[in-house]
Amino acid sequence: MVGAAIIHGGRLLAACRADPPELAGGWEFPGGKVEPGETEQEALVRECREELGIDVVVGERIGADCPLHNGMVMRVWTASLTRGEPQAREHSELRWLTEAQLFDVPWLPADLPVVEAVRRHLKESG
Ligand SMILES: Nc1nc2c([nH]c(=O)n2[C@H]2C[C@H](O)[C@@H](COP(=O)(O)OP(=O)(O)OP(=O)(O)O)O2)c(=O)[nH]1
Question: Which co-factor is required (predicted)?
Fold first, then answer.
């Protein structure tokens, strides 16, 4: 599992899950599973196109590996938006969060340590 911390103009893009019912309403990093023959970074670029209709350039790994409830592990990278305006194609809602707003949405529990790492990253980059 890979996720993208898309940072643009000092804000982080957060996405609200539409399904499955037990995760709906939880906020997450856009992303998904890595397909055979693909690198983790390539999977992120593909998922951002599919889910959001945007092009991103993948940056650095951020946060520790997050164990998920299903036994998988999620790795998150920073990403910058290079083309398009994010559209909620598979999510119920998208929000750009400033550093002060980062914890205003109910993140999926596994994501919280990574959101904290993003907070430090935004602080350092001003
Ligand atoms: N994409 C994503 N999934 C997360 C995050 N945090 C978290 O616990 N998950 C969980 C939710 C799902 O149970 C699992 C994988 O989600 P997913 O988006 O790849 O998978 P999916 O089952 O909807 O299937 P698909 O897109 O691969 O078809 O990871 C996160 O920040 N981003």
Answer: Mg(2+)
